[in-house]
Specification:
435 residues, Outer membrane efflux proteins (OEP), elongated, 2 domains, 4 strands
Length: 435
């Protein structure tokens, strides 16, 4: 029993996949957490805007101790009095016509929509950033393995070149060339390991930790073209659903409403007001007795702005300029989204073609290396030819891995550009990994 328990406990932890890394990022990523807080703050714009059209009630009270000394110029005796005075009042105001308050309320609705779209955009961006960091680590690990394999192959070629030189079947040039290739491979391996560490730290910035192992891409992975396989359809979808466009459109709507709100500064305002006050004052006013008073009123209060030093007109001009800026920002956002969508679409379609071409190139490069080695054995190929063929095979393998990971990222970027990226899309890519 103890042996079984030890065996179970000593089993390595399963490799982390894209979904598990994404779950960690949702709780650990500072950018996502900040966006969530910003979204919660944005939700408060609606009750703040609504407050401007609801009644406002104010309660005020005071109590004063009065010490008064009167000196009469007529020569009459001076009067000294010490007494208390107290008051309590309640005032209620209900806006009846304040156009700017209603516009502020409508603006608040757009601000809430903008905050929601901005948060969803950050959520989509988190999916892309997690996948980018994840596949960057896998690519860096692959490059380390390829650099090590290249160094091992060149080490064998270097040893063979030295043996051949010692027995007189090769020149010192072959040995020197093999030594140079080996040294370069060693340098490339160091650089690859350094790049791997950098990529791991980039993943750590998102998740708060470096996972011990990541699930690798399965050999069953098969690239597929976008659905639909039409660039214009994706660009049209992006124009309608892109969260970036929605954020910019909300900004334009808010700016347009700001123009109307500032223009309403020229209009009168009408409020319904009601007040109740209760005051009391002690004796001592010119020797008279104290008194209590109660006052109640209800009515309408009209205010007509006549001249404010040009402030309202200036604010209107400022709002018009801001509206134009928001309109141009929206146009630029639409163009940028269309460009990103086209770029991601081409990345997916070209990625499929590139992966297939590199698969063929891998077979050709391996065959070329085998043929070159055989040619070296029979004396029709040189050591340099073998080194070149080995380096070509390693480079093809590196390009193949890079093409696969770039394709995976572009699949997610295409959905993000169209504004339709969800966790289901991440799960679709995650299915390509080994379980």
């Amino acid at each position: 029993m103890c042996g079984l328990l030890v065996g179970v406990m000593s089993q390595p932890a399963p490799a982390a996949d894209l979904i598990s890394i994404y779950r960690e990022a949702q709780t650990a990523d500072a950018v996502y957490a900040g966006a969530r807080a910003s979204y919660m703050a944005g939700q408060e714009k609606l009750p703040q805007g609504r407050a401007g059209i609801l009644p406002a009630v104010t309660l005020s009270a005071n109590t004063l101790y009065n010490d008064r000394d009167l000196q009469f110029r007529s020569g009459a005796p001076a009067s000294t009095a010490r007494y208390n005075s107290n008051s309590l009042s309640v005032t209620a105001t209900q806006p009846l016509f304040r156009l700017q308050n209603w516009i502020t309320y409508e603006q608040a609705k757009n601000q809430v929509s903008q905050a929601e779209a901005a948060f969803l955009q950050v959520a989509q961006d988190l999916i892309v950033r997690v996948a980018q960091a994840y596949f960057d680590v896998l690519l860096a690990e692959n490059n380390v393995a390829l650099a090590a394999a290249q160094k091992t192959a060149f080490s064998e070629q270097l040893a063979q070149a030295k043996r051949n030189f010692e027995v007189g079947t090769a020149t010192i040039t072959d040995a020197n060339d093999a030594q140079a290739r080996h040294d370069l491979a060693a340098s490339q391996e160091i650089a690859a390991r350094n790049e791997l560490e950098i990529r791991k730290q980039a993943l750590r910035q998102i998740t708060g930790r470096i996972p011990p192992d990541l699930a690798k891409l399965s050999s069953r992975f098969t690239p597929a073209l976008p659905n639909p396989d039409n660039m214009d359809n994706w660009v049209e979808q992006a124009g309608a659903s892109s969260l970036q466009v929605k954020v910019a459109q909300a900004a334009l709507d808010i700016a347009t409403q700001d123009v109307s709100k500032n223009r309403s500064g020229h209009l009168p305002t009408l409020d319904a007001v009601a007040s109740y006050s209760d005051a009391a004052q002690g004796s001592g006013v010119l020797g008279g007795a104290g008194f209590d008073s109660t006052t109640t009123y209800i009515g309408l209060q009209l205010a007509v702005p006549i001249y404010q030093g040009g402030l309202t007109t200036s604010k209107v001009r400022e709002a018009l300029a801001n509206e134009e800026k928001a309109r141009q920002d929206l146009e630029n956002t639409k163009r940028t989204v269309a460009l990103n969508t086209r770029s991601a679409f081409l990345g997916v379609t070209n990625g499929v073609a590139q992966i297939k071409a590199l698969e063929t190139a891998l077979v050709s490069s391996q065959s070329s290396l085998d043929s070159t080695r055989l040619g070296q054995e029979v004396g029709v190929r040189t050591q340099v030819d073998v080194l070149n063929s080995t380096q070509q095979l390693i480079s093809t393998r590196r390009d193949y891995a890079q093409a696969i990971y770039a394709y995976a990222i572009n699949v997610l970027k295409l959905k993000a550009a169209a504004g339709t990226l969800t966790e289901d899309d991440l799960a679709y890519v995650n299915a390509w990994l080994e379980k």
